[in-house]
Specification:
By secondary structure, the chain is of the alpha/beta class. The protein has helices spanning 9-31, 48-55, 67-76, 112-122, 137-149, 163-170, 190-197, 202-209, 213-226, and strands at residues 38-42, 59-63, 81-83, 97-103, 123-131, 176-187, 234-246. Helix 2 links the parallel strand 1 and strand 2.
């Protein structure tokens, strides 16, 4: 996975965690996670999905390639079996789990088809989900701003952002079921939003980090306009595409 995720857990939580925490129960419902199941969270990040799986009293393990995020996971979830590992090389025997889930990571995998082979090797049911691009107000505002100020914005990791692409990715395992999962996240005000963006998380953060001081001032002003010039608390919505498959 990309080095853009060698960041602090707090920075990730401020930028994306406020969305992924709300997404986690919807994704777990779609995957059919139940109490007592052996469940693997692949690309677990800072634990938004891990927390939901534990809340459902599943027997949870987590695989995460970022050492920074692994440290966060081990601190937050001392009872969870955490492994620093990429999705393409999982350190588990075949059929170790009932369900393997990958929330918001498949587009960032170095070799997504190989990762799906690994997930389906260690679990009978595999479920993945990924944000759309234009369907997420946060990303859409970033990209509109980048088109005006210059730079890339949220333009990398654009594969597997539709139901069709995810279904094709999982098709080699069996019959695929898809769904659309809609969430929203709130901000106290525009300063709260800007602090989260300035944490330099993911492709958008890498873009912002590459701008000079004058460009960053322009981005701050233009982004505010693109968001409708909020003067107080506001929410942004996003659509996530999900797919799952169960081996015969």
């Amino acid at each position: 996975m990309s080095g853009v995720f060698h960041i602090s857990g707090d920075a990730y939580d401020a930028f994306m965690g406020r969305y992924s925490v709300r997404l986690a129960p919807l994704f777990a419902d779609f995957a059919g996670v139940e109490a007592g199941q052996r469940v693997l969270d692949v690309g677990a990040g800072t634990g938004a999905l891990t927390a939901e799986l534990a809340r459902r009293r599943a027997d949870v393990a987590a695989a995460e390639p970022s050492p920074e995020f692994c440290a966060v996971l081990q601190s937050r979830f001392p009872d969870v079996d955490v492994h620093q590992a990429a999705a393409e090389q999982l350190p588990f025997a075949g059929d170790s789990f009932d369900v393997a889930l990958a929330q918001l990571v498949v587009a960032f995998m170095a070799d997504a088809p190989a990762a799906i082979e690994e997930l389906s090797r260690v679990a009978r049911t595999v479920a993945v989900c990924m944000w759309g691009t234009t369907e997420v107000e946060l990303f859409a505002a970033i990209n509109r701003t980048a088109s005006i100020v210059g730079g890339g914005g949220e333009t990398t990791a654009r594969r597997y952002r539709t139901s069709e692409e995810l279904a094709e990715l999982l098709a080699s395992v069996g019959d695929v079921e898809t769904a659309e999962l809609d969430v929203s996240a709130g901000y106290e005000d525009y300063d709260d939003f800007w602090r989260a963006l300035a944490g330099e998380v993911g492709p958008a953060g890498a873009w912002l980090n590459g701008l000079d001081d004058e460009q960053r001032v322009r981005v701050r002003e233009e982004m505010h306009r693109q968001l409708g010039s909020p003067s107080g608390a506001f929410e942004l919505t996003g659509r996530c595409y999900a797919a799952k498959v169960t081996r015969a």
